[in-house]
Amino acid sequence: MASVDSTGSSVSGRLRSGDLLYTGLAVALLLGVWSVGGLEVSTGKVSQLEAMNGSTVLLPCTYSSCIGIKNLYFSWHYNDNGTMNKYCEAVIPIEGVEPKVSVYHERVEFVGSSKSNNISILLWNITFEDEGEYICFARNPKEKNRNHSAIYTLIVVDQMREVDNTLTVIIVSVLGGVIGLVIIVMVIKALVVHFLLKDDEKNKECLVSSGNDNTENGLSGAKADNKGTPKA
């Protein structure tokens, strides 16, 4: 009986371990799907902007989510040497509903729209003090309030740097010279072929005319011989 009990307990233990294994795999799969379809925040392909002092710049930020949003919270912060200054914040109740944005900076304007998943802002009349990192932050309660953010770096300059086009000019000049040389060679080749064809035609005409002359001379000689032969 003891052996039967031990066998039964071992079988039930294996079943429990198998159930735990399947449960763990299912949880891992769900977490993987959740992470793939979760919220993503982006400031675009280029996360850095160089702008002139006194100009107005766009700080771009968009979000996307395959599982949808509900009460999506977002905000913009400026990293002032480690101190995070909040520039604006809002909550988007559901997709397509425009948020009521609270702005905390006099030169900041919200220009985004939930209809295009856009939460970008404008920064007016920038100064050298505005240079630094700007953080676009978002949190979706449907993801158990996981935090997402993207950084956009602003560089303020007194004047825009001139782009050195020397290399471009050299490349264009070389390509233009090569193309011009190819065209000249093609024109010369066409002229040579044209003159050669003309010479061939002249040679053919000369051969034909000389052949005709020989034929005429032969016929006239034969006629003269026939006339000079006396009748019997």
Supply the number of helical segments.
Answer: 2
Uncertain parts: 25-36
Structural class, from helix and strand content?
A: alpha+beta
Overall spatial form: elongated
Q: Radius of gyration, rounded?
A: 44 Å
For the record, the CATH class of the domain at 40-157 is Mainly Beta
The chain-level mean pLDDT equals 80
Describe this structure in words.
The protein is of the alpha+beta class and 232 residues long. The chain is 42% helix and 27% strand. The protein is built from 2 helices and 11 strands, in the order H-E-E-E-E-E-E-E-E-E-E-E-H. Strand 10 and strand 11 form a beta hairpin. The protein starts with a helix and ends with a helix.
Short note summarizing the structure:
The chain is α+β, with helices and mostly antiparallel strands and 232 residues long. It contains 2 helices and 11 strands. The strands form 3 sheets. A 6-stranded mixed β-sheet has the order 2-11-10-5-6-7, with no helix packed on it. Strands 3-9-8 form a 3-stranded antiparallel β-sheet, with no helix packed on it. It has a two-stranded antiparallel ribbon with strand order 1-4.
